[in-house]
Design goal:
225 residues; Jelly Rolls; 2 domains; 5-stranded antiparallel sheet; 1 helix; 45% strand
Length: 225
């Protein structure tokens, strides 16, 4: 039921790349994350300067009603999109041409700023569980903590201590490697690259049997938006 209609998560695959038949548009949303999983994509955003290329591991926050357009993508392109709410309007802008002449990287769009996080050169720091480290994407800051987005990787073939969360949504997508998710007393799932899971608030869980190359995307929202 898409988390009661609150969220939608999509894994989009485009086998054959090239120019994209897109147009300038914008979304009536609370937030929208675009994570480049594989390949690359060329995009352009309102007031953010010339078109640019997102490589694998990069992501953007699309704040409400920012005009944008997808121009081109690679073969075997894959993207993870997470939006709130699940059903939202997409609106066409027939008047605006992109890129815009002006550049305002600090512009406010419905209380949020545009954020482009690049994996190359990103700083990794200790995660909340031992045996892992993470790179923060800056999206929590750009949304005033409406949503936080991190990429987490294992530093050893480790298990985490049992944990839980008090947010509305905790979403994980396995980017590479594998792990076992343990929830409660008897629930266990082995997750590999391309798998995803959500963990309800207040549910005890543990990550175990983590491969040395484990890396996952984590999206966390507070208890109420």
């Amino acid at each position: 039921d898409r988390w009661g209609g609150a969220y939608i998560a999509s894994h989009i695959r485009i086998p054959e790349g090239g120019p994209v038949a897109d147009y300038v548009h914008h979304h009536h949303i609370i937030f929208q994350l675009i994570y480049c999983y594989k390949g690359w994509v060329r995009v352009v955003y309102e007031d953010q300067g010339p078109e640019f290329v997102m490589q694998a591991g990069d992501c953007v926050l699309q704040p409400p009603h920012i005009r944008h357009r997808v121009l081109e993508c690679s073969d075997e392109f894959e993207v993870i999109e997470i939006g709130c709410p699940a059903e939202h309007a997409t609106l066409v802008d027939h008047e605006l041409s992109l890129p815009t002449e002006q550049r305002h990287p600090e512009r406010d769009f419905g209380g949020q700023g545009f954020c482009f996080h690049q994996a190359a050169g990103a700083n990794w720091s200790t995660w909340r569980c031992d045996g892992f480290e993470s790179r923060d994407t800056g999206i929590a800051r750009a949304t005033d903590n409406i949503v936080s987005v991190s990429v987490v990787r294992s530093t050893t073939a480790s298990s985490s201590s049992r944990s839980s969360h008090a947010g509305e949504l905790l979403f994980k997508f396995i980017l590479q490697g594998s792990m076992t998710l343990e929830c409660g007393e008897n629930e266990r799932w082995h997750l590999v690259a391309g798998d995803a899971c959500t963990i309800p608030a207040g549910k005890d869980y543990c990550l175990s049997d983590c491969s040395d190359d484990l890396e996952f995307l984590e999206v966390l929202t507070p208890s109420s938006l």
